[in-house]
Amino acid sequence: MASLTRVCASFSPSSRLVRRGMTRFVRGEVGEARQDFDAAMAMDASIRPRLWQRGLALYYLEEFEEGAKQFRVDVDANPNDTEEAIWTFLCESRLLGTDEARRNFLQVGEDPRRVMRAAQALFKTGRGVEALRKAGEMEAQGHDDFYAKLYEGLFYESEGDEDKAKEAIVASLNTNYALRSGDYMAGLARVHAKLRGWVHEESQ
């Protein structure tokens, strides 16, 4: 984190708040992260369409309506963002149920990543777990394997199947990519598992 601090020193005040919020989020300090994201947005309203990190924090704080609004603003600004369309669905499924959320699924451009095209199809139709797994297997233990397992777990959680959700997300954490990459979404997977009580602090 020392290098992160040095980088932040050259950023604008709002950017430093966003970076601090990101650091807090991956530590599991979700409420504090949300406060930083809100403070950054209050300081510079123009960043809201890029503040997907805030939407993720709102999801884990179970502020699903505000989370959905955040992701919809993000997709309006970037209509090719598959992941934010999925997270919109995840928020709205908690509010409206999966059937209605699926009817309202945001239309986005085609993602160049095979694994995310498979994930989008799974959430949009409710079918295609095997296709997502196969997409992940193209890069065993790598980026695609991690993302396939993460989004499989999120899908099962949206369907109310906690056992399958736990199995997939814990598996995502055990990929080489999650262990070594430093990807923010790997941090999210750890936060997710910790908040659900699926892993303990010492095992992360």
Give short descriptive properties of this protein.
single chain, 71% helix, disordered N terminus, mainly alpha, 13 helices, globular, 204 residues
Task: Give the overall form.
Answer: globular
| Helix/strand order, N-terminal first | HHHHHHHHHHHHH
Assembly state: single chain
The helix fraction, in percent, is over 70%
The tally of strands reads 0
Sheet of most strands: none
Strand content: under 5%
Which stretches of 5+ consecutive residues score pLDDT under 50?
Answer: 1-10
Report the end-to-end length measured between terminal Cα atoms. Answer: 17 Å
Radius of gyration, in angstroms, nearest whole number: 16 Å
Q: Which structural class is indicated by helix and strand composition?
A: mainly alpha
- Total DSSP helices: 13
Overall mean confidence score, pLDDT: 93
Summarize the structure.
By secondary structure, the chain is mainly alpha-helical. Helices cover about 70% and strands about 0% of the residues. The protein has 13 helices and no strands.
Give a written overview of the molecule.
- Helix 2 packs antiparallel against helix 3 and helix 4 packs antiparallel against helix 5 (64-77).
- This protein starts with a helix and ends in a 9-residue tail after the last helix.
- The chain has helices spanning 2-8, 13-26, 30-43, 52-60, 64-77, 82-96, 98-103, 114-125, 129-137, 143-158, 162-173, 176-180, 184-195.
- It is an all-alpha fold.
- The protein is globular.
- Helices cover 71% and strands 0% of the residues.
- The protein has 13 helices and no strands.
